[in-house]
User: Which sequence fits this backbone?
């Protein structure tokens, strides 16, 4: 079981410590940790499980904040990691974002939340709906009130009813004048195009996000026209397994507000909406680079926010890059971003330029990988389609909405 | 360019954050000590207290020690404001262990809060009280937890479950049974939320107490999908362990097939889905066996068995197998965990996948593949851990993942660890059909900017080629191209990465060639070696050069071209020797000698020259390693080197032979690639140990299959008690209940026989035919007074005859001698609704409690224990006999041990007999133990006359001539002796001691609950709960006081669980004045819960009676 949780700022300062069990963990572990971060760099920050000399550490990094949990005994490591993720989610939900300042400013709330979320190293209440009722999030009103009156309590006097309910994710009595449900399909396209320009892998990772504001205890069913194309699925705890097993129907009592109902994957797609063709030739210490971008299969919607990003190899001394469309920026860490936004009708965007190599180096032997970003509103490229959304008891005024969005995920073009 | 603007933006954002920070606790965090905290804490306003506490918390957050405020903070625990309470609790929990004495001050307030009507207050109080971890409050806490475990509010019960591990941390052995009992209660809770927390308590409190799971197993499986995610993770583990401990591994599962290859082969023949198995044949059965054994034994234990052969030969003696198709427990577990593979929590998915991996039939294991792979995309933070688990699965059963190779393609955002894992997995799952795509990927990776990764990719190519020999030539070509390409770029460079790639490429080539004895592809290999030799000129990396040189020596005889170029190569090496790095020099020396030792004919001369040149050079080298090596080789090869000159030396031939043989052994033989060892560690899927690759503290391998046997667990269903029969023809229309005792094949010492009439005597020899005309259920005593105590029923047949004629329900009571059968009709009318039973052989189970008189630590290694013995002294009725056992814990003999009383030791000078003084407790001098050997135990009965003094008796213990003073505590329970009387005499006496001679007290009795639970799990015998309660009460009583059991009356009621009306009677007489002393114990309540027990003492001697009553209450409750 977890023994202690530390919150570290991006400069390694311990902002908060919460001891969970009788076996106190000294903060010196954080010093050790930070020493490792400094000596091993980013790759250390990406390790989720670390065996330190005295403790096992689990870490996640969210927006510069490192959440560090310690244990000395065997426990499922994913439990520690998932719990830290949950803490990060709840905190960023409460504080509307995460950074060093908001955590310090609201440290009391962070303490209270942590105390409620974990008891003796085992998660207690992690459902954000219940937490919100127990500990009021800081908002403008309460802040103003505290300024004016000098006091405010954010701790609720009563136990939220949802703790006893069989749908703990839902507050017991909610009332809305206008009932609304919005269903969004948010898809991310992952693709790998190898050096020969062959599409090695292309798949869609999608999420069904629901934003519901419905009175009472609604029971929703959502069905797809083509559920069979989804390869893998994962569900929010509110989804009942049986209907999905038998008919591929999502039946659920939704939490209030925005939440991720399910995630899915559609694999082995055959094409991508845009193409990116890099060409790199090198000779005698200089290197010519040429990148072409264009639309391959028109999805009949506008593709925007197109960006191409790549890391110049370390052996490149200087780069001179120009584009016939969009802006090219080279950052100090040799990351190069070319933002195109929309592809103009009249010409195909192209980036070209020369790179100067280190002295003594004739030719380039490592090649950058181009990460492509784009966004298409109004279409789910995987082809997943929602069929219908039903409520068992239809409330008086109900508005149902549906949207779709596809953006690039891990879209990589190797050169 | 826009620095100015940037600066403005920066200040703007700062200003906006400042705005944003208004009204938060920012100032408290930044400057917690800008006001004096102490007065604020004592303020009467909650808001000021709050502020002070927040400041303290800020200091805690920043790592300052503010425990000096503890007393002031504790006072505020009684505050009504929940916010203050919460903050105080946060502070308390952080410091309570440091300041235990002050923390005690808060206990009253917690006690009060525990009775609060607000469940939140109750829950918080319980959480904090348990969290402060003080040994002294353990009893209070136990009561509190027990109470909260029955709270109507789910949240409070959940907190109670969470409090149990905290309690367990205190390591209070004496309460462990009660704790386990509460765990059991919570595990059968109706709310899934509570069950999750209870499961977690179970794993930390009593992970091996499978009896708690036994009966609830099915219910727990069914409720699993509704339990909250954290609970699911833990509960899945518990259920898996239980299923294995109960039924063993599944015959159709991977674990089994990995076991014996033969069995998997034989099954394959008659199996329909041949295809799946054909792929499986590929997997390494040794490796697979290792895995399944590691799961069960833990790798440390398994791998420590030294010899590899030993490991294989050892069959799974203990392992038993069950069939997944017929075993319902396995089926339901798989069924209930499979939807969890869709869970949103990656830990749940991995836990569920682990269950399927171990338990599911082989053809169904593949259902875990997609969910696991999906985790790689959908939960980024879990990626590494999931990959580590997949790696093990993929090694053991590559066919599972082989068609999903695309999922392991590396993307640039992966960290190095993830990339390396992916490469490894790709290597192990590569098949002939996928290798070409994988190979293409690897080629891309070689150009990755991360050179360490590129080197790994090169190594992976080598590995793939080794696994799939068809690919070897392609791989070799590619690798060769790489070496050629790389040396053009990395010449000038100090770039480690490049060198790494190059070394790795050559290592890979080497491993491909060495793996396969070069018969098949001789031409190719010759070509490769020659290519490498050619590149020697341009390759500058020492390690790479060394490897190539080694290959020259190794393959000097390969093909036809290599031997021919050897001369040139050797000359080249000799020429470059001085400029080489250390490892290359050593390798050149080796190669030269190798070539030399195998040389023949005209080449010999050249080689010899070159060889002696190189060795001479080496002898003058700066590095001592090289010099040593040179000298050694020189000695070894003296003969062949100096062959020309010393040919005629007479000493040489024998010497030459020996050395030559030695040299040939060392250098001639083709090096054999050591077969890959299986010595890598495998831990349970999803465990921390699997990630860190060593057993983390607390890691438990799976339980031994079938380690719990049926009768231990037994699904105890109470079969008795349910037939309640009204006898119409009975004279008194009283009801009798029939208890049926099954499975009395058990030895007689444990069975309690309460047998019924109607049921007749079927299997139970002690069940007697029983005439319906008299329905009375009656206590009877079969054992003859003076007969052997543990007599088996059959042997008392004469008595039985008699009993049968009296138509009583008989049972056996050996404890009570001299009690004649009291079945009379008046008696039966008195007890209409109760059955009188006897508890057989309780006497043999009575164990008088033992107390420590002298601790070996204080007594120079002499341990002295004493217990009050129920025996009556033959010397004087006033004396209480105490059994004292002396044990020598030292290595030396202890002599002259004796125990006398303090007074007499003083008085011995004045020669005044202490016995003569009337009122002082005295000890009859005991027989001296002349010597006590190490480890020996001597027992002595000493007689003490306590004169009803309850204060500890000071005694002097002499040993080895030294005097040690010790204290013996009198036990009022042994100031009496048993008075065997029958029930009429009892009631008669009782009626003569009314009013002021009668004292009662009541308390709650909980001991039997532990007994009940223990029994649930361990005993297939259908035992009656009532009997258990009676038994535990009687046993407790008799073990602590010297009474005799007169009767046990059991209520007969419709309610199965209600023991109200249970009545036990005990009698005794006071040693000093032979006054009778009667005790009646009655119980009320349900037997699964704490009982309200009242004790009544009837005794003429008031003070003694009251003291006795207190004593009884104290040991019973």
Assistant:
């Amino acid at each position: 079981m977890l023994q202690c949780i530390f919150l570290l700022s991006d400069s390694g300062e311990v902002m908060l410590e919460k001891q969970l069990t009788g076996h106190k963990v000294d903060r010196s572990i954080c010093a050790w940790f930070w020493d490792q971060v400094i000596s091993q760099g980013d790759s250390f920050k990406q390790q989720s499980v670390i065996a330190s000399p005295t403790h096992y550490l689990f870490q996640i990094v969210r927006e510069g904040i490192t959440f560090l949990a310690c244990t000395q005994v065997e426990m499922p490591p994913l439990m520690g990691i998932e719990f830290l993720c949950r803490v990060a989610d709840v905190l960023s939900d409460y504080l509307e974002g995460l950074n060093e300042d908001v955590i310090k400013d609201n440290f009391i709330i962070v303490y209270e939340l942590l105390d409620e979320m974990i008891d003796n190293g085992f998660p207690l209440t992690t459902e954000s709906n219940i937490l919100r009722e127990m500990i009021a999030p800081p908002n403008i009103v309460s802040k103003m009130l505290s300024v004016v009156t000098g006091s405010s309590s954010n701790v609720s006097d009563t136990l939220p009813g949802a703790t006893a309910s069989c749908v703990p994710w839902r507050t017991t009595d909610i009332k809305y004048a206008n009932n609304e449900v919005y269903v969004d399909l948010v898809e991310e396209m992952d693709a790998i195009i190898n050096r020969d320009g062959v599409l090695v892998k292309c798949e869609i990772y999608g999420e069904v996000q629901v934003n519901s504001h419905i009175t009472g205890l609604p029971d929703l069913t959502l069905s797809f026209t083509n559920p069979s194309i989804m390869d893998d699925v994962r569900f929010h705890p509110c989804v009942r397994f049986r209907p999905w097993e038998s008919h591929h129907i999502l039946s659920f009592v939704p939490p209030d507000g925005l939440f991720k109902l399910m995630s899915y994957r559609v694999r082995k797609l055959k094409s991508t909406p845009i193409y990116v063709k890099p060409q790199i030739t090198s000779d005698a210490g200089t290197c010519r680079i040429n990148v072409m971008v264009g639309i391959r299969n028109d999805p009949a919607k506008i593709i925007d926010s197109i960006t191409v990003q790549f890391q110049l190899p370390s052996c490149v001394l200087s780069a001179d890059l120009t584009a016939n469309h969009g802006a090219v920026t080279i950052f100090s860490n040799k990351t190069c971003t070319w933002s195109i936004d929309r592809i103009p009708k009249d010409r195909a965007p192209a980036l070209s330029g020369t790179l100067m190599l280190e002295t003594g180096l004739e030719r380039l032997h490592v090649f950058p990988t181009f990460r492509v970003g784009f966004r298409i509103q109004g279409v789910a490229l995987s082809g997943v389609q929602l069929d219908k959304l039903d409520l068992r008891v239809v409330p008086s005024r109900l508005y149902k909405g549906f949207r779709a969005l596809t953006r690039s995920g891990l879209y990589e073009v190797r050169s | 360019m826009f620095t100015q603007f940037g600066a403005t933006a920066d200040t703007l954002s700062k200003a906006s954050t400042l705005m944003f920070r208004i009204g938060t606790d920012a100032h408290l965090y930044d400057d917690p000590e800008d006001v004096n905290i102490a007065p604020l804490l004592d303020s009467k306003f909650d808001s000021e207290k709050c502020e002070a506490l927040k400041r303290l918390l800020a200091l805690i957050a920043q790592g300052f020690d503010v425990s000096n405020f503890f007393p002031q903070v504790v006072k505020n625990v009684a505050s009504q404001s929940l916010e203050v309470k919460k903050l105080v609790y946060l502070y308390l929990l952080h410091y309570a262990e440091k300041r235990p004495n002050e923390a005690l001050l808060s206990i009253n307030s917690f006690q009060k809060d525990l009775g609060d009507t607000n469940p939140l207050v109750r829950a918080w109080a319980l959480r904090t009280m348990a969290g402060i971890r003080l040994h002294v409050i353990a009893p209070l806490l136990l009561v509190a937890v027990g109470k909260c475990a029955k709270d109507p509010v789910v949240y409070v019960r959940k907190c109670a479950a969470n409090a149990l591990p905290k309690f367990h941390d205190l390591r209070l052995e004496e309460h462990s049974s009660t704790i386990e009992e509460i765990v059991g209660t919570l595990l059968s809770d109706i709310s899934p939320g509570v069950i999750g927390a209870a499961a977690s308590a179970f794993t930390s409190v009593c992970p091996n107490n499978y009896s708690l799971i036994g009966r609830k197993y099915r219910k727990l499986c069914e409720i699993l999908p509704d339990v909250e995610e954290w609970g699911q993770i833990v509960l899945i583990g518990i259920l898996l362990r239980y299923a294995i401990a109960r039924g063993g591994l599944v015959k159709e599962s991977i674990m089994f097939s990995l076991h014996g290859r033969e069995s998997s082969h034989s099954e394959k023949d008659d199996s329909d889905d041949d295809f799946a198995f054909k792929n499986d044949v590929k997997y390494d059965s040794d490796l697979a066996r290792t895995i399944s054994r590691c799961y069960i034994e833990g790798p440390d234990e398994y791998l420590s068995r030294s010899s590899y052969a030993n490991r294989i030969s050892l069959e799974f003696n203990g392992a038993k197998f069950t069939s997944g198709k017929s075993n319902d427990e396995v089926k339901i577990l798989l069924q209930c965990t499979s939807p969890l593979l869709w869970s949103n929590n990656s830990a749940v998915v991995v836990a569920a996948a682990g269950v399927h991996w171990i338990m599911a039939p082989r053809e169904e294991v593949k259902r875990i593949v997609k969910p696991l792979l999906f985790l790689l995309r959908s939960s980024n933070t879990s990626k590494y851990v999931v990959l580590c688990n997949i790696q093990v699965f993929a090694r053991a059963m590559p066919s599972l993942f082989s068609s999903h190779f695309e999922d392991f393609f590396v993307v640039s955002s992966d960290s190095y660890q993830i990339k390396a894992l992916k490469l490894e997995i790709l290597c192990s799952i590569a098949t002939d059909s996928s290798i070409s795509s994988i190979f293409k990927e690897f080629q891309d990776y070689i150009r990755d900017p991360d050179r360490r990764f590129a080197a790994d990719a090169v190594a992976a190519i080598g590995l793939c080629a080794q696994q799939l020999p068809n690919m070897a030539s392609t791989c070799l070509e590619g690798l060769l191209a790489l070496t050629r390409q790389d040396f053009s770029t990395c010449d000038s460079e100090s770039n480690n990465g490049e060198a790494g790639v190059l070394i790795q490429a050559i290592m890979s080539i080497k491993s491909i060639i060495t793996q396969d004895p070069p018969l098949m592809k001789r031409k190719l290999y010759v070509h490769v070696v020659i290519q490498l030799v050619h590149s020697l000129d341009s390759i500058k990396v020492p390690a790479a050069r060394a490897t190539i040189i080694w290959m020259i020596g190794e393959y000097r005889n390969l093909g036809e071209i290599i031997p021919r170029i050897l001369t040139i190569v050797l000359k080249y090496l000799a020429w470059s020797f001085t400029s080489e790095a250390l490892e290359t020099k050593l390798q050149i020396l080796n190669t030269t000698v190798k070539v030399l030792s195998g040389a023949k004919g005209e080449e010999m001369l050249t080689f010899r020259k070159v060889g002696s040149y190189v060795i001479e050079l080496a002898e003058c080298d700066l590095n001592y390693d090289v010099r040593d090596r040179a000298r050694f080789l020189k000695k070894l090869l003296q003969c062949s080197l100096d062959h020309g000159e010393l040919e005629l030396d007479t000493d040489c031939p024998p010497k030459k032979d020996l050395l030559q043989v030695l040299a040939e052994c060392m250098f001639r033989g083709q090096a054999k690639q050591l077969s890959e060892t299986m010595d890598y560690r495998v831990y349970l899927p999803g465990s921390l140990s699997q990630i860190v690759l060593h057993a983390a503290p607390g890691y438990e391998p799976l339980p031994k299959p079938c380690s719990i046997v049926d009768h231990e667990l037994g699904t105890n269903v109470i079969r008795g008690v349910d037939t309640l029969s009204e006898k119409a023809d009975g004279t008194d229309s009283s009801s009798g209940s029939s208890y049926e005792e099954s499975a009395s094949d058990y030895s007689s010492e444990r069975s309690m026989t309460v047998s019924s009439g109607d049921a007749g005597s079927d299997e139970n020899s002690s069940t007697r035919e029983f005439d319906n005309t008299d329905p009375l259920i009656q206590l009877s005593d079969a054992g003859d007074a003076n007969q052997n105590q543990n007599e088996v029923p059959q042997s008392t047949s004469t008595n039985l005859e008699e009993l049968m004629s009296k138509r009583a329900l008989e049972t056996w009571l050996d404890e009570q001698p001299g009690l004649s059968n009291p079945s009379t009709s008046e008696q039966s009318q008195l007890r209409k609704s109760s059955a009188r039973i006897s508890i057989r052989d309780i006497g043999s189970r009575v164990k008088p409690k033992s107390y420590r008189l002298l601790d070996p630590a204080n007594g120079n290694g002499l341990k002295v224990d004493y217990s009050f013995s129920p025996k009556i002294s033959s010397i004087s009725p006033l004396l209480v006999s105490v059994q004292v056992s002396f044990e020598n814990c030292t290595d030396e003999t202890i002599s002259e041990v004796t125990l006398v009383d303090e007074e007499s030791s003083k008085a011995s000078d004045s020669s005044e007999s202490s016995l003569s003084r009337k009122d002082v407790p005295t000890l009859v001098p005991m027989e001296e133990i002349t010597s006590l050997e190490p480890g020996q135990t001597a027992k002595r009965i000493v007689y003490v006359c306590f004169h009803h003094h309850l204060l500890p008796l000071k005694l002097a213990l002499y040993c080895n001539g030294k005097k040690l003073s010790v204290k013996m505590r009198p036990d009022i329970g042994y100031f009496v002796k048993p008075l065997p009387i029958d029930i009429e005499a009892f009631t008669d006496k009782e009626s003569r001691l009314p009013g002021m001679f009668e004292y009662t007290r009541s308390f709650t009795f909980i001991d039997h609950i532990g007994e009940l639970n223990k029994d649930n799990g361990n005993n297939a015998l259908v035992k009656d709960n009532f009997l258990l309660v009676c038994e535990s009460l009687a046993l407790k009583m008799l073990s602590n006081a010297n009474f005799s059991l007169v009767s046990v009356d059991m209520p007969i009621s419709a309610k199965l669980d209600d023991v109200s009306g249970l009545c036990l009677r005990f009698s005794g007489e006071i040693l000093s004045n032979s006054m009778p002393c009667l005790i009646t114990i009655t119980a009320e309540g349900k037997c699964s819960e704490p009982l309200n027990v009242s004790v009544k003492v009837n005794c003429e001697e008031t003070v003694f009676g009251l003291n006795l009553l207190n004593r009884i209450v104290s040991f019973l409750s």
Q: What stands out?
A: Chain B touches chain A through 124 residues (CB under 8 Å). The mean pLDDT of chain B is 72.
